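In response to the reviewer comment on reproducibility (Comment 2.3), we provide here a single inverse folding case reported in full, input and output, so that an independent group could reproduce the run without further information from us. The structure tokens appear first.
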């Protein structure tokens, strides 16, 4: 009888479910975006390589920084770290900027990163053809480049780029290597859309600077990271003539601590997004209660007849409870399908990665069923407590 009553008013039942559908779908979609952001940022740092320590210019304190605070790291600092700090395998300072690369009548704007030969090991890069940068290229400031597959596809198409000449910032560069594809980092960042050139070439011939923007260091093992990080800090303080309680003009962090910090921040973001979406579920529950109250009022005479024929309090109560719970259950199931579809649609844009997990699906569906139950109790009790004589007289 409960199901028959719902099918008798299909449009009204569907509109009542709409609040639950939107609520469940919103929870799943927004939480999947939050989880995807977390996964994307984490994979960005993981792509830097294992046991990696990142040294950035400027103090770690929050607040505005002056332009000079970004110029505190030098190439010589990286060389000193390599020579004097124990328990490290590779060191690669870097600078980067965005430039237009041109080959024939094709052009492509991409990230051009000035690095040393050791970056190949730090980031676990693989050369598909040709070779990577060498120490000779750095010493002679050679105009040579190693390109990613995305750059190769847009400039050369199917043609082998190795040995060809391209122009970057209107300067000629010879392509000496093509890297294996690493794909997307998971946060809309194409790791193959990069050109690597010698650090000295980038600093002196391209940007005209005497400082580096970051230094990547790979520790020899996970256990050696903390000690290496401490030794690097001590060495740089000595080199930068920082004494006593003077603030560091650099920031040393390892990828593990960065990932942990990011995970904490994105977890709070995911909870916030899920909570905001959960409010719409609550609104959907109020909609169920509203329609069930209308249904009780419309069917007062029917309830009176049923009670006169012997229907008990529990019979009437169960009928209306089933109606409200069916709305919650069916709305929840449709919401799951809509939410998963929305999540895949967002991911298909390539701007943000999404990650669908069972937890938000189970929690949102359980909440939808609980809302159907909770907000159906009052209308059901009201119907069950109607006096049969008064109900039969109701017009």
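Designed residues, in position order:
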């Amino acid at each position: 009888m409960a199901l028959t009553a719902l099918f008798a008013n299909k449009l009204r039942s569907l509109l009542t479910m709409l609040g639950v559908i939107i609520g469940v779908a919103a929870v799943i979609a927004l939480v999947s975006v939050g989880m995807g952001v977390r996964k994307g940022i984490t994979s960005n740092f993981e792509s830097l390589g294992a046991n990696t320590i990142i040294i950035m210019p400027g103090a770690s304190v929050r607040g505005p920084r002056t332009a000079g605070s970004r110029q505190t790291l030098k190439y010589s600092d990286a060389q000193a770290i390599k020579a004097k700090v124990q328990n490290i395998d590779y060191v690669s300072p870097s600078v980067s900027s965005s430039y237009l690369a041109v080959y024939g009548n094709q052009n492509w704007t991409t990230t051009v990163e000035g690095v040393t030969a050791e970056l190949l090991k730090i980031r676990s890069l693989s050369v598909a053809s040709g070779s990577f940068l060498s120490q000779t290229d750095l010493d002679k400031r050679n105009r040579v480049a190693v390109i990613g597959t995305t750059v190769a596809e847009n400039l050369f198409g199917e043609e082998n780029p190795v040995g060809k000449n391209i122009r970057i910032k209107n300067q000629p560069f010879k392509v000496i290597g093509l890297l294996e594809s690493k794909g997307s980092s998971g946060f809309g960042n194409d790791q193959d859309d990069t050109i690597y050139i010698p650090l000295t070439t980038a600093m002196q011939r391209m940007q005209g600077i005497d400082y580096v923007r970051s230094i990547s260091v790979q520790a020899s093992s996970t256990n050696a990271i903390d000690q290496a990080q401490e030794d690097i800090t001590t060495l740089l303080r000595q080199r930068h003539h920082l004494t006593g309680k003077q603030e560091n003009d650099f920031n040393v962090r390892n990828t593990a601590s960065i990932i942990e910090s990011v995970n904490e921040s994105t977890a709070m973001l995911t909870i916030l997004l899920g909570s905001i979406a959960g409010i719409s579920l609550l609104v959907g529950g109020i909609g169920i209660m509203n329609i069930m109250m209308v249904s009780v009022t419309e069917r007062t005479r029917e309830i009176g007849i049923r009670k006169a024929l012997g229907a008990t309090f529990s019979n009437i109560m169960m009928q209306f409870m089933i109606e409200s719970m069916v709305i919650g259950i069916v709305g929840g199931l449709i919401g799951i399908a809509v939410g998963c579809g929305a999540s895949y649609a967002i991911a298909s844009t390539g701007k943000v990665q999404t990650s669908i997990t069972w937890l938000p699906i189970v929690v949102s569906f359980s909440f939808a069923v609980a809302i159907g139950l909770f907000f159906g109790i009052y209308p059901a009790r009201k119907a069950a407590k109607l006096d049969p004589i008064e109900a039969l007289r109701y017009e």
